[in-house]
Design goal:
Blueprint lengths: L2 H17 L4 E5 L5 H7 L8 E6 L3 H8 L3 H7 L4 H13 L5 E7 L14 E8 L5 E6 L4 H27 L1
Helix pairs in contact: 1-6
């Protein structure tokens, strides 16, 4: 996916959120703020992008988003349990109505037999709704894995925004 396609996807997300008067926040680990960078490249994104949390370490996940130490110790940063708490924490600690969170092992090192390089966990949800999570596995180098994570995260926000629109309409 080219940068132009990332930009167009971010534009679509923005239009969907803006149409509903909703703001988005991100809680990013392995993507390091890339999702926030993509959405803020769209002029006028301040109408629908509220903030981004870049939480690369255990301590930042705990301090900034309220992820429990027990969750990190028992399941690790790359887990559905952690991204669920990251999403809930970002919804609680922002003025956004929609949040997407991401934590993964982009490589080239850091993988394990249970969580090989290319494993990325996602969480997303809207205020007052359930947090959804999923684990994806991608092949490729660090850049490829991170780019696919950005695309997938934005696609989930788009689906969520459109579902919120249908629920209200």
């Amino acid at each position: 996916m080219t940068d132009e396609k990332l930009y167009q996807l971010a534009e679509r997300v923005g239009k969907a959120l803006k149409a509903k008067g909703m703001m988005m926040a991100t809680a990013e680990s392995c993507t390091g703020g890339w999702i926030a960078q993509v959405v803020t490249a769209v002029p006028g994104s301040s109408a629908w992008f509220e903030r981004g949390f870049v939480v690369y370490t255990y301590i930042s996940k705990r301090e900034m988003l309220g992820v429990k130490a027990e969750t990190l110790e028992n399941f690790g940063a790359v887990s559905e349990q952690t991204v669920r708490e990251m999403t809930a924490g970002a919804l609680e600690r922002s003025h956004a109505q929609v949040v997407v969170s991401v934590s993964g092992t982009a490589g080239p090192s850091g993988g394990t037999a249970q969580k090989p390089v290319g494993t990325v966990c996602f969480g997303w949800g809207a205020k007052g709704g359930a947090v959804q999570t999923v684990v994806k596995q991608w092949a490729g180098d660090r850049e490829t894995v991170r780019r696919q994570a950005v695309v997938f995260a934005l696609e989930q926000v788009l689906v969520l925004a459109e579902a919120e629109a249908e629920a209200e309409g």
